[in-house]
Write the C-alpha cells for this entry.
Amino acid sequence: MRPKLKPFAYILILFLSGALAAANYYMFVNAPFGECSLGRVPPDADMSQMTQALGILSACINYGYYFIGAPLVVGLLLLLILPRLVTNAATGQEEKLPPTQPEVKKVAPLPPPPKPTTDAAVQLLGLLQREGRLVDFLREDIQPYEDGQIGAAVRTIHESCRQVLTEHLTLEPVLSGTEGDEVTVPKDFDPSAIRLTGNVSGEPPFRGTLRHPGWRAKQVKFPTQPSGQDPKIIAPAEVEIS
C-alpha cells in the first residue's frame, strides 16, 4: 500500500511552490540583478561599452544561479521534511505489528506417574494367608504355647508360605556371594538396593563384608482378581450355614 501524506504536507508543498513562483515573478518583473541580454559586443567597443557588457554578463550569471539554485533548495527541503510528514494510516498497521515469531509446537507434558497402591501387597498377604494361614499365626499370641508346639506349627506354615513365594515370585539376590564374603560396593551404587552399616566414612567405592545378599523381585505373577472384588480384603470371613 502507498504511504499517505499528512494534511500539513500538502500545505507545505503549496507554500514552497507559491514562494518559488512569487520569487520567479519578482525576478522577471523587477530584474534585481539588472538587464540580461545575449547581444554581441562589437569589436571596436569602447571602455564604457565593455563595462556595460560585463555588467550584463554578470547579471545573466546571477540569474542562472538563481533559476538553478532556487528549485534545488526547494527540492532539498521537500526531501528532508516530507518523509517525516508521511502518515502511518495506510502502512502503520503493518509496521506496528510485532515481528512474527516461529511457531513453537507445545509438547504435551508427560502424564504423572501412577500413585503407588497397596493392592499388590494386600494380594500377596492374602495368598500367604490362604495357603499358610500366615496372618493368623502372626496375629496369635504364642506365649502360652511350648516351643515344641510352636515348632510343629511353624514347619507347616513355612512350607505353605514358601510354596506361595516359589509359585508367584521369582527372586534373585541383589549381590552375588554368600554371607561373610568380601565385596566391593561400586561408586554409583543404588542406596535403595545396598544398605551400608558399620563404620561408613569417605567416598565410594567401599570395601566390606557381605552380611546379607538382599533380595530383588525379578518377576511377579499374581492371579487376576475377580471383577468387583475389594482389593483390600486379605481373607474373606467364613460363615458355615447349618
